[in-house]
Amino acid sequence: MAFQPKNFTRPAIGRGGSLGLLYDASSDCVIYSQSILKGEAPLEAIEVTETPNIKHEITTEDSLHEKLSKLDVSGELSASLMGGLFELSGSGKYLSNQKSTAKVESSSVICNIKTKHERLILGSDALRGVLDLDTLAHGDATHVITGIHWGGNCIVTAEASLDDSVDSTDAGGSANISGKWAEVMIKVSGKGEMESNDQNTKHSFKFTTTADIAVDFAMPEDFKQAAEFIKKIPEDLREPNKGKGVPIQYDLTSLPTLAKRFEAGTTVREESMIATLREDCLAQFVDLFHRINTVKQDVNAYLDDVMAHPKCVPGSQVAKARKTFSDIRNMEIELKREFQRALLKLRQAKAESGSSDAHGELFNLLARYSNRDGVGREIYSSILYEYRDKMDMADWFSKKGVNYVTDAPRNLERFVMFEGGDQFVLYFNELTRAGENWDKTYTLFHELVVNRAAKKTYKVAVVDCDVGYVANAGPRKLAKAFIEKRRDGKIIVADVVADMQALAGKSLLRCQDPTQLETSRAILAPPPGRRVVRVFCPGEHCFNSERSEWVCPDCREAVCFGHGLAAGGWDDSLYCGCGRYPVSQGQFKCGNPVHGAGYYSFADPDHLAGLLRNLDLSDECSVMILSEKGVDKPTLISSLWNYLLFGSLDEALNSRGPLKVATHSPRAFSHEGQTVLGGEDISASSPRKIKYDLAVKNRTVRLFDVADIDTAVGSAQAPRVLNEILSVLRSVDRLDAVLFILPPDAASLSDEFKLYMTNVISQLQLGNNKLDSHLMFGFASSGKAGQFALGDTKMPLNSILQTAGIQISLGQGNTFFFDQEGFGFPALHRTAAPSTQSIDRSEGLNDRWTASAINARRLIQEVTRLAPLNIRESLCLERTRRFIADMKGPMAKHVLLTATAAESRLAEQEKLGNVEAEMKELDKELAAMKDGGDARTKLPKPKTVCCFPGCAVFKDGASPGEKVRASCCSACTVDPVEDGKEGSSRLRYCWAFYDRQKETYLDDCVICGHGRKLHMHACYDKNIARRDNSDVTKEKDDLEEERRAILRRTSDNETLEKEFAKEAETVENALVCFGVYLKDWVPNVKDMIAALKDAISGGLERLVCDAATNEGERVKRLRELQKSYDDRLERVADRIEAGRPSAESHHGEIEDVMAKLYETTHLGLELKKATSTSSGHVAASENANPPASDSTVTAASPGGDASAGNDVPPESRVQAAVSQDSAAAAPTEEGLSSPWESVPMLTP
């Protein structure tokens, strides 16, 4: 138990006092009412020492530990201070002063002056005459003030708001304040003057003083006045007590020491020895109080912030911050009260046990409060950072002049009423800032705010939906943040970001100077020889080796180059839906992420013009047509061709040439000048695949007509049609677009159509970043009420597209409308008799034909602007993805066969040991025969005998007095056995240990009752008659032959294991190649590898579960094999994550890897069978096509061949499993030949 020393010193820290006053060290209080002196001490009883000294010190720290150190307060006095055992006054108030908020930075100058030291001369006779020794018996006192150090302390503190700090080198700003104090100290020392160009106004800093005396001059308002203030401090501090100043430190002498010194007969306080607080405990309490104070400052600063942002922080958050601050403040008061009680208990302890209890209570107090909310920043940081970023964002908006309003209708109305022109309004709340679209939305709005400062052509506003109300319904609930575009107060775009999704990843080309854009309707259509612009991007960071296809960001149409010769030379103009503009005005922004946010122009416009003049014009485009039920595609295709050829119905009727007719028959024929429609019966077993080549103005438009869902057979044909669509994709060399034909006003679409539409989109998304622009939608209507606007079909169609992950807006660039039966009238006109050719066509037929012709030409125009889809890569990506999925079964079986091969090898090795042991026994028998000894006879079946001496019995024929071990099982069926080995594990399945009633094997013999370890197998028995030597020799020769067979089988198994290991390495490298190839297109590559891992682990786990409880070695081997494959697949996942596709990573390389897997000896057979079962959904490869087989791969059952009994040898099981279906068919070329019949267009 540690105690305070009997005599010590204590800093006065503002507490007045005089010589002779009593002092209570347990509470560090001066007892002003009691003194050992009856009056003032005689001068001759006081020793006075002059100690003149002035010290100035600058401090920037605000921690309690730093303040205690600067005022020389340590140990027990600091504990009393924290416990609130006495009131602070004078300079001591500096210790209790705390910043109210963390957003204030402070720095102080501490001025310490010493003048004199006075102490009582205890041996002086003059002192004895004024002593009142009876006061030594005062119950509360422990010491007497016997010495005083005189002088004074004064602390001048400068505070500055972090926002107001000037020349701050960091967020805190303390370097600036301490630098100013350094200048002050130079002036005070008389070594220089302060700089006159003080950048801080007098309101930048707040000055406060804490002194042991009251100063009689004004508080400084800047650092120059502070310098003058500090110069006068020594004079003021010396003035009291005749120039001595005030007490700054006391010398304390214990009561027992004085009583003994003066031989007082008075009984003094026995417990004047005060127990001290352990240093580690004290340090932890100092840290705890500091942390609580820091928390309080931070929360108070946060409270100030949220109250200063009423437009973006809801009132509930302000109330939450206010309550948190109150809770922390109350916790600090509670802690101080409990600490005071525990500290007094410690200091009043009279024994070691009491001190231990008190210290234990203090440490418990530490533990309890250290774990409470509000003590550490990590606990309350959630509230400190709530709305923090939002407040910073609101401040930035305010600085940029953005109109930031709460979600009240009138607020926005004022903005749109007084701000004309284009207006962009951001709607958001705190929850939407965590949404998926926030980054895109904020980035766009940020650009709008920044660009507005330069352009000033539009206005911006923010509506904060956390604050305010909508129609008295409380805060608005937003599903996501969005930007609304208004023009003169009217909404023209409800969601700007969603509207711009169609431009994501596209290369944009715009007119630099809008005044150079000609918008006359006469020039909106580009000349006939126009070319779609495909040039390199001029961006300074763009080094793309591919030419980009450029789209206008405003009209969303592909930009074309005039290309044709005009009257004055080349037509060097760029065309889009907005109009035309000179080539020199073109600004480019490609879809490459490294391009950046800006647009770039070609440094040499003539160079760009040269590139554009050399653009190629493709003479072919290909479109695959898919339709919903009920659409007559042959008739529609016939109509489409004639719409392309004839712009009006009159033109079609007046044409002397034949009408163009689509037919299902590969034969073209006519009949007496009449138009004839050919056809064929399309059954479920004979799907239709027709290719039409349409010649349109020196351009070939190739249409691929795929079998549709037959209304009669319904969804049963969905797999067939889906397989047919995939065969189309495998067979075409070029595909520019997919045209879906639907009715315009269907409230719902068939499930079959949804199925193959989503599958086609999913297939084509692989390998094609910009698939959305290649999807076209044709709407076929019939009859007088032909519809040329999208009706009820829009909702179900958008639903399918959303399910397929396509972000697309149905509009002018991808929707086309046709009169499905428009072709019928001119056909009827051609075939009718001359007297009946005046057919009535007044019911809108002319208009429907003209509108259909415009849509047909617009369709071809849009398609010709597109770059071809990457079909090869798309098919290979899909096949690779499915190939990995198909590997699960073969890989699981491959691993099981690997385990079986290893177990077979080990079983053969065990057999080899037994055979060699038997051969040694036969050698002994032959030697015994040679020496004339008795021969042994091999038993037909091994017997199980007990080795316990008490179980031995006499046997007829044995030597006199010789006992033979008792037989517990005369014909054991266990095979193989270990002859003569006591406690062999092979005894586990002997009938001698089987309890037939319980139907289980026991550890004790059911015959003799002894344990299994006291038994053994015996394969030989002594025989009275001697065996013939030739019989023994023959038996040995048979064993030798068996030994050689075992060695051959062991070698075969070792070869199998090596082959399996080599194939596993090949699989690892292949999976890495597949994964790296897929990962940029398929998001779940890791899941696919994990599925492989689960399949393999599942098979091995079943083997482990089926293993016998005593087969520990086998279980261990299986676990090691399982771990090796787990590690291998983990390594595969890591290599995929680290890898990047090489320049050669394309479908050819992937097919080569697949071919190598098919060529593997064992795994290849299983892969061919597995992949053939999914060949209806996967493209076949020219290099490595799996066989057409309906067989299904089944992994070897752990409870089957791999763990069967002894009827089938392990080596036979492995060979049978590996060689199963070894005669599988070689890969076929089915599906590689073109499925198309090139059908000429019939002319009558």
How would you characterize the overall build of this protein?
There is one protein chain. The chain has 1244 residues and is an alpha+beta fold. It folds into 7 domains: 8-274, no CATH class; 290-385; 388-501, Glutaredoxin (3-Layer(aba) Sandwich), CATH 3.40.30; 504-613, no CATH class; 620-869, Rossmann fold; 892-905 and 1042-1219, no CATH class; 936-1025, no CATH class. Helices cover 39% and strands 18% of the residues. Strands 1, 2, 3, 4, 5, 6, 7 and 8 form an 8-stranded antiparallel β-sheet that branches. Strands 29-28-27-24-26-25-37 form a 7-stranded mixed β-sheet. α25 packs antiparallel against α26 (1029-1078).
Q: What is the overall pLDDT average?
A: 74
Q: How many β-strand stretches?
A: 37
The total domain count is: 7
How would a textbook summarize the main sheet? 8 strands, antiparallel
Biased composition (Polar residues): 1170-1195
Domain DUF8206: 938-1020
Biased composition (Low complexity): 1214-1226
Coiled coil: 905-932, 1022-1059
Summarize the SSE layout with pairings.
Elements: E1 8-11, E2 21-24, E3 29-35, E4 46-59, H1 64-70, H2 75-82, H3 93-96, E5 104-120, H4 125-128, E6 143-161, H5 174-188, E7 206-211, H6 223-238, E8 246-254, H7 255-262, H8 279-307, H9 315-347, H10 352-370, H11 377-385, H12 388-399, E9 403-407, H13 409-418, E10 422-428, H14 438-455, E11 458-468, E12 482-487, E13 490-493, H15 496-500, E14 507-511, E15 531-532, E16 534-535, E17 548-551, E18 560-561, E19 565-566, E20 569-570, E21 573-576, E22 579-582, E23 586-589, H16 605-613, E24 620-627, H17 633-645, H18 649-654, E25 689-696, E26 699-706, H19 718-731, E27 737-742, H20 751-765, E28 775-781, H21 794-803, E29 815-819, H22 824-831, H23 845-864, H24 871-886, H25 888-930, E30 936-946, E31 953-954, E32 963-964, E33 967-969, E34 994-995, E35 1000-1001, E36 1015-1022, H26 1029-1078, H27 1085-1106, H28 1112-1138, H29 1147-1159, H30 1163-1173, H31 1210-1219, E37 1237-1239
Parallel strand pairs: 9-11, 10-11, 14-17, 24-26, 24-27, 25-37, 27-28, 28-29
Antiparallel strand pairs: 1-8, 2-3, 2-6, 4-5, 5-6, 6-7, 6-8, 10-12, 12-13, 14-23, 15-18, 16-17, 18-21, 19-20, 21-22, 25-26, 30-33, 30-36, 31-32, 34-35
